[in-house]
Fold this sequence. Notes:
This protein has 21 helices and 18 strands. The chain has helices spanning about 40, 45-55, 80-90, 120-130, 160-165, 180-185, 200-215, 230-235, 245-255, 275-280, 290-295, 310-315, 315-320, 365-370, 375-380, 405-420, 435-440, 445-455, 460-480, 485-495, 500-505, and strands at about 5-10, 15-25, 30-35, 65-70, 105, 110, 115, 135-140, 155, 220, 270, 280-285, 290, 300, 325-330, 335, 340-345, 385-390.
Amino acid sequence: xxxxxxxIGLRGLEGYRVQVEVQEVPGIAAMVIVGLPDxxxxxxxxxxxxxxxxxxxxxxxxxxxxxxxxxxxxKHSPMFDLAMAIGILKAMGKLTAPASSDAAFxxxxxxxxxxxxVDGMLPxxxxxKKLGFQKIYxxxxxxxxxxxxxxxxxxxxxxxxxTVQYLHGQRVLSLPPVFRSPEIMDSPRKHHRxxxxxxxxxxAKRALEIAAAGxxxxxxxGPPGCGKSLLAETFPSILPGLSHDAQLEVISLYQLAGEKxxxxxxxxxxxxHSASSVSLIGGGTHPKPGEVSLAHRGVLFLDxxxxxxxxxxxxxxxxxxxxxxxxxxxxxxxxxxxxFILLGAMNPCPCGYLGSRTRYCTCSPKQIQAYRNRVSGxxxxxxxxxxxxxxxDFTKETRVSESSETIRxxxxxxxxxQYERYGKEITNGRVPFELLMEKSPLAxxxxxxxxxxxxxxxxxxxxxxxxxxxARTISDLKGTEEIADESLWEAMTLRWLKTYTxxxxxxx
Length: 508
């Protein structure tokens, strides 16, 4: 008799139903696993047989065939251990309880029969919910935000014996797991940096507020020590908190990558400029999320952007345009979400002092041009805001800055208007352009003005689209229903980056 037990397999964040089929066949005693298992799944036979022996069942004299269906998909995780053990017990008559078609079994087994969580438990649970499962048997993991999964019956089991007792209708008396409440996850954030502590840079703070409100990318250009890194590291303090769905997405990605994150807040990733393309985009034999996916719903900060390999930077084109990244390998093709705000920072030249009022630039025109060419034109095109920065004279700066909390409230209000306008959780920087124009069309005079500036500055169609998106965000911050002329003017100034030639810098 063939016994069928259900589990969940993962292909990136996408989950699919795995049917674990177990049958005893005549032949030499062994346990054979088929269905494209990888090394971690092949080793399951030793773990499962040892845990069954600890449970009091010895099947070392039997020949068991375990088939993981569908057979055409590679199985990568030890998540199927529990389902295999339950299937073997049922096939051998040690478990008489009927196998439910709406129950899934997840978890890895240790040699003494203890059930342990593995990487990717949350995306597997979310996939089970989408696939229509009503019950899931799994080990307890304190990092899971299970208060968001109220429609799913999660049965926590600690050992194989406890699972069998539960299936036979015996409720085991065990300590209930302590769940984290939504109030804890949504508690006020504590940031080490605040915009109020940054002296000057009022234009830069205004540009970053617009970027946070509309989800726009920013490239900061300025000499060393002018505050580029400080502004970028303070930027998350004005971002709104994540919604429940966004939290589940982010935690799922971090679980797949084997990293921890403080849930509830937008992630902030800051890779070094020596990072490889695989670490930035993602990859490996079994593709895992890279920095662009770990920054999903948050910020990716590339300091010294021109020092990154040009090939690596050009790989950002797809995620910046589509909000996701597709990784193709021989074994599988995986798509991960990668909807992030890109903050870039670079110097105006190799030495960093081109255009400075206090230092002399030692770079030749050829060196300056080669340095700027490290960031390709398509990447420049995908930056919404080009922000020039200069060193602040602290003796002349007397204006008091706003706190991050005050700015964040305006950002939250602007985003609320965008969500209401588009009917879903999407910002002006990511909404399809057709929907943007349908909800906020430009007047004829505004179109003519934008065309004149585009012709004068040789802006591409993508740049013109980004200016319209910026103008819509600025109008949302001002509280106007239509795109105002002042908003369009401000958006065009945010796209204009003053760059000095060697002769202009010398004359200055």
